[in-house]
Amino acid sequence: MENKENQNQLQIQLRPELADGKYTNLAMIGHSPSEFLIDFIFAAPGMPQAPVVSRVIMSPENAKKLLFALTDNIKKYEAQFGEIAPRNTKGGNN
Predict the structure, then answer these.
(1) Is residue 34 domain-resident?
(2) Rounded Cα–Cα distance for residues 36 and 88 (Å)
């Protein structure tokens, strides 16, 4: 039975060019009946333009799974490190 479980495990591969990640401090979210589109943006202070550093497109079902996963991880983070206090930001998009 253990071999069947190992065969069903998803092997996640992280390509070296993605391993460093991209810093983002703003996200813009749009949706249609069939997908959610999330643009992750880096807005530098004093700069008039803010580039999209990554775009993720997902199904509504997977977007909801992401919501649940983020909620669970934030609860765990706050239990370990304390409450994340939201800063007063302009626009409210992040």
Answers:
(1) yes
(2) 26
Per residue in 56-88, pLDDT tens? 999 999 999 999 999 999 999 999 999 999 887
- Domain assignment present for residue 87? The answer is no
User: pTM of the prediction?
Assistant: 0.77
Write a three-state SS string for the chain: CHHHHHHCCCCCCCCHHHHCCCCCCEEEEEECCCCEEEEEECCCCCCCCCCEEEEEEECHHHHHHHHHHHHHHHHHHHHHHCCCCCCCCCCCCC
